[in-house]
Amino acid sequence: MTSDTAQTEPVAEETAYAPEELRNLITRPRVVLWDFDGPVCRLFAGYPARDVAADLIGWLEGRGLRNLLTDDEQETHDPQVVLRAVDRLRPGSDLVTELEERLTRHELDAEPSAWPTPYADPLIRTWTAVGARLAVATNNSATVIRAYLEGRGLLSCFAPHIYGRTQDLHRLKPHPHCLNQALNATGTAPEAALMIGDAPSDCAAAAEAGVPFLGFARNERKAALLRQAGAETVVDSLQPLFTLLRG
Length: 247
What we know:
By secondary structure, the chain is an alpha/beta fold. Helices cover 47% and strands 11% of the residues. The strands form two sheets. Strands 5-4-1-6-7-8 form a six-stranded parallel β-sheet, sandwiched between helices. It has a two-stranded antiparallel ribbon with strand order 2-3. Helix 1 (19-27) packs across helix 12 and helix 4 (79-89) packs antiparallel against helix 5. The longest helix has 17 residues, at 94-110. The two termini are 28 Å apart.
């Protein structure tokens, strides 16, 4: 693992925000909902996601089921795309259950080499210290999230509010299910929460749940996708959040 503040990728060149707007966004919420892979850490930093996707596709091919995927899906580097594609055609099947379990095993194998997002650890601790409640709302396995947070000494900042992937795959983001779980469990109105995510699906889920959204993008390509999805505030680092909260 890297240090809390080490950079891992070129950052976005054009992500911009008004400091006062950002201050209002991050000091207002009673509950902060975090996507996991991206804002908290790079889960597949040392265990490439493209290899995981290739393994899932190969596993399907070995069963004569590669044709369940479109041409684009067969070329994807995102294992979540493979899982959701199969669930779309074979919802609730044993095939989907086995595929999801295979992905979970890969995520568990990836967790020890995950890289913490720069400033994520101190930001999480600071937000907790100033009285905000934190929750994870993600499409990754909750087992993996708990293992990572426990290893970083952060589990107490979130537990028990960790809402990850379940067998109801149609409820993965952009469906707002995991956000609504967090809101209901903490007794929080949507407007009193904040969602931090790095993908258009996070932005869409937040909009559907009525939760204000803060986009996090390590590079301009991801920032552009977030802006296209409707994100009004996008940052390329968690450092300004940490600075504002400490101030």
